[in-house]
Design a protein that fits this description.
By secondary structure, the protein is an alpha+beta fold. It contains seven helices and 18 strands. 28% of the residues lie in helices and 25% in strands.
Length: 300
């Protein structure tokens, strides 16, 4: 493994650290370590890192901003990638926003606001990257990332770059047709003309609503379950009397029942135990099978 690590560490446009704790890089503040964490700044460097990892038989995983994710306590085997600098850049032309897969959604919203590009206000307050938002089709109940995506550039496991148009892809509630081994290099988002003041107002309203209804500022992975068709996971969990239910450091948020918060020192095991208890109670009381929205990755 050390040979592969040395090779990766020597690639231009790469910074790397061995045995990095993932709890430092997830919004839950939970997760064991990975063998190597690699910050990659260019497409060329990314291809070289992936080629070296493939040749050395090491799995790779793109972390994004560590939101909407639960990393288990045994961590992730192999190489964990963060896309930075050029791969996280943002360019605005007219009503189009070209953003790297590693760009933060917050930065996209702020650039859209100052350019008077409307439509993307719903992304305000979502702590993810453009790549993560494309894969999980981030958004609210019926307005989502895919609605504004004009073009997507991805890198497949054959290390070929492919440009896809919106018509090549399918998006649904929290799902997309992006293959699990694709890495999002860049997305072009297309908004509508608006005044800067109008966009600013909508962003502020959206953030204010979040501050009022969600445990903003606490350690969570966002909503933990998908909303079942025609209902709300938060409403079901609250009506099952589970707000505030605790397993170790994991708690059903008293603010919004579809959030689990890490009140300090929670483990992935405790969070998953709490998830199982919630699913069980909601199934018994309402006959509804809740489905996780967050991705669970790594080893026990
Ligand atoms: N509700 C309760 N108890 C609660 C929470 C909610 O009764 O503890 C009720 C509310 O009163 C409301 C309904 O459930 O009548 C819906 O709640 P809310 O308006 O807060 O929206 P949500 O459906 O729970 C969705 C997305 C959020 C997104 C918000 C706002 C899902 C699973 N959740 O929440 O996305 O921020 O709309 O746009 O689709 C996420 O995906 O991580 C996420 C937080």
């Amino acid at each position: 493994m050390t040979d592969v690590f040395e090779k990766i560490e020597g690639i231009t446009g790469v910074a790397a650290r061995e045995n990095e704790l993932l709890s430092l890089h997830t919004t839950f503040g939970v997760g064991g370590s990975c063998d190597l964490m690699v910050w990659v700044s260019t497409e060329e460097a990314l291809k070289e890192v992936l080629a070296a990892a493939q040749a050395g038989g090491l799995p790779t995983f793109v972390l994004g901003r560590g939101s909407n994710l639960l990393v288990r306590d045994g961590g992730i085997s192999g190489v964990v990638l963060r896309l930075v600098e050029e791969l996280a850049g943002i360019d605005v032309t007219g009503l189009g926003i070209r953003a790297g897969g590693g760009a933060s959604l917050g930065e996209v919203v702020s650039r859209a606001t100052s350019a008077g590009i409307g439509g993307l206000e719903f992304l305000a307050g979502i702590p993810g990257t453009v790549g993560g938002a494309a894969v999980a089709n981030a958004g609210a109940r019926d307005i989502w990332f895919g609605h504004y995506m004009a073009e997507l550039t991805i890198l497949g496991s054959d290390l070929e770059t492919v440009r896809l148009s919106a018509d090549d892809l399918k998006f649904g509630y929290r799902t997309s047709s992006l293959a699990p081994d694709w890495i999002v290099i860049e997305a072009v988002l297309s908004g509508a003309a608006a005044s800067v003041e109008e966009v600013r107002q909508k962003v502020e309203t959206s953030l204010e609503r979040r501050r009022r209804t969600q445990p903003v500022g606490e350690r969570s992975a966002g909503c933990i379950f998908k909303n079942p068709p025609g209902d709300s996971a938060g409403r079901l969990i609250e009506s099952a009397g589970l707000k505030g239910l605790t397993v170790g450091g994991a708690q059903v948020s008293p603010v919004h029942a579809n959030f689990i918060v890490n009140t300090g020192g929670a483990t992935a095991r405790e969070i998953l135990d709490l998830v199982a208890r919630i699913k069980d109670r909601v199934k018994v009381l309402n006959g509804v099978e809740l489905e996780l929205e967050v991705s669970v990755v790594g080893k026990d």
